[in-house]
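Hello again,

I reread your note about wanting to compare the complex against the isolated chains. To keep things tidy I'm splitting this into two emails, and this first one only covers the full assembly. Below are the input lines as submitted, including protein chains and any nucleic acid or small-molecule components. They are followed by the predicted structure of everything together. The single-chain runs will come separately.
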Amino acid sequence: MNLTKIHLSRRQALEVAAGGALGAVALRFGLDEIGPTTAATVSAGGWPSPLGTQRAMAAHLLRRAGFAFSQADLDTAAALSYDDLVDHVVSQKPARLPLPADLTNHNQVAAAWYSHMVTTSAQFPERMTLFWHGVLTSDYRNAARLPFVYQQNVLYRKAGLSDLRSLLASVTADPLMMRYLNLDASTAAAPNENYARELMELFTLGPGNYSEADVREAARALSGLRIQLVDSTGARIAAPWYTKANAQAYADEVNALVRSGATFRGALVARVHDSGTKTFLGRTGNLGPDDVIDIVLAQQACAPFVTRRAMTFFATPNPSSADVNAVATQFRASKYDVATLMRAIFRSSAFTSPTNYRSLLRSPTDYMVSTMRVLNRPQLATGAVRAGAGMDQVLYAPPNVAGWPSNAGWVSSSTLLARINFATTALAHGTTLPDTAAAVRTHLDGVLGRDTTAALGAAKTPSDRWFALLASPEFQLK
Amino acid sequence: MSVTRRDFLAAGLVGAASGVMVPPVFAKGVFAAGIEGIHNDRVLVVLQLAGGNDGLNTVVPYADPAYLSARPTVAVRPDAVLHIDSSVGLNPALKGMKSLYDGGQVAIVQGVGYENPTYSHFENLYVWEYADPQRAQTDGWLGKLLGSQIDSQGHPLSACALGETSTPPELRAPTATVSVIDSITGYMVRGGATRQATAPALYRNTPGIYGVLFDQALSTAESGMKTLAAGASAYTPAAQYAIAGATPAANSLGAALQLTAQMIVTEPSVKICHVVLSGFDTHQAESTRQTALLTEVDAAVSAFMTDLTAHGQADRVVLMTWSEFGRRINENGSQGTDHGAAAPLFIVGKPVTGGLYGEQPSLTSTIDSGNLKYDIDFRSVYQTLIRDWLQGDAATVLGATYPELPFINKA
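Full-complex prediction:
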């Protein structure tokens, strides 16, 4: 990305920035709110960037490491130096997901997660969980009558903040993943290549960094994993037996077991595991699942591949190879420590550059969570699960194993209308609304285009002003 | 949408400043000087059967003993097959398709595929959507056609994805403008007149790298909403799209094709429509599931053709089906079939020269341990549709030339 610094008056810079699109800004929502600057920097393609100020940098970080925040949160954050704030954010400990009534019900688990994303004070762990859900993705339709979506959500919240090795080891034994990519049906006699292939192609290395023979050999090494139920001490216990006639009793029993600490997890069953000699990415031996992960992590391609996915999600739509490699080197040197990765990304110039302002497009989940947060309306969480369908994102129902679209991929004439209509739905609930002028400063940094300025000026009621804010292009971006 | 000088300048500066992506309008500005190749009133409707439709149970080689022996539980019973000739026939769920075939309006292209197939959904979707078995192209084949030969000006309704929410990859290209309309009732700004006026006004001059994309999506939506509102009174369906007693979910394709008919009848600029029906990945309990899906296809396509005829539009519409792959010859252990290779597809419409094209692949001389060899490269089908139906230039879209099939009636 080019760094374009234009030393002009702020007004001139605005005019230049977008061919006049950022014209007169209504006084009430004026850019004066962001404080005086002597040199304006034009961000990626035209928004005047406020990122020269500590307060705007804090907002930039909180919006991308979390979702949305209150003015008081921003006051606190902006009092720290940027580096201290980064440390503070990446060391946040996740708060437990409040249990939905039925842990086997996808809608309820997704609604519980939405609600949690809206209400938790530890936003960064939720953002990381959402990231891993898009990378190491799975589909709820593989979890019929079992608490697999809930378990994977809990797993990614916990392991997703540790290191890549622990994460991949737990994902390989995660029942939803095992079903989604057919590990649970892979045997020595008929190794299923699905997980082996995607582990390398989509999760860690990218195409071109392994051969078809490597896929076959990894599949052999990964064969024989089966889903078992263990109690809170790790001892294997019998799983309840489902029949149509006992559906309710079965659901009750599964819920009771999980609440008591039992979990479903993958275990290597010797009888169906291929214990022969395999050669995978140049290593030969009686390799098993742990070896596959260690060998994958030892590949040069691994750190840059995972780093690029993280930078595309958190930092900038098209990170340069130099930017990626600078971060990837730190990630690898830390033995794939996730906090190190994220600290490096948040401190990278690709992230902090003034030209990087509003370079990311909020995902539907991000948009809805942020809307619920700024309006303080977590009760919309259940509706958000359904509303996501119109915007192309139902959690745990990704379009395919490559995970979610990103940035421009979220935009169609249909999805944009769905976002706009969600704003109307969100505003239809409740009567008291926060002050809009303060919201423009806190949530949009006071940086408004001409259209949004005009719409806010023309709006006659608080609800109409909030509609203009939430439906605006500014609020879709971060 | 028309590109004003101001839009052009603004977009140009955006592109130059960001170096990240070239906004569509900027590209359009450049291409607008070119001359579009396609000037006619012909419409192509693309019906995607997502998940990998089992070709062998769609166009059934009922007389081949190898068919029954490979599929002890999932084979279609030979006496139930709707005979096309002495060797193949249609799945009994396709009664309407059979009647259209008997009327000379269905071309069945057999054994469609490509060399060295992959067996992954993801990779095959890419192959078909981007017309590229190497999976290196970045623009969808219909998007390329649209942007370069049909409508580089970005008329919002030249291409429509109907009954879905995201832009189908085959229609994606920097120069392609696509209306994505999930449903008539959903394609609106809710909340009253003020909101309806405010929403589009928020997206007129959006700055930033997403500005053009946003503004175009909303201006596309705005035009589409107006057309739908006007069309609602100008169009009444002349056919029964819904299957009596079926759930709305089981009539989703009918709803999408009814919307397609409405768009074709009421909006003359419509050239390419995309609809999709999902659920064909029948690894388990195939017979029940595929029968339900093919019943839905049959009812929806039959109603669509009846409706177009009643509205005097049948001469200008051709519908093509496709699926990312066919399925394995041998059934698996769960009364289903796994991912396979070549499969038949349908070309439907009054302008079609009906009949069988290509050869049914052998069930015994196979590739990759029990998969069908292709006979017709799928790009032959694309090329025939581009050249003989839409009268465009196929080579610039496909990057090469393929043998054509005479399924378009040129008389």
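For quick reference: Chain B is about 35% helix and 15% strand.

B.
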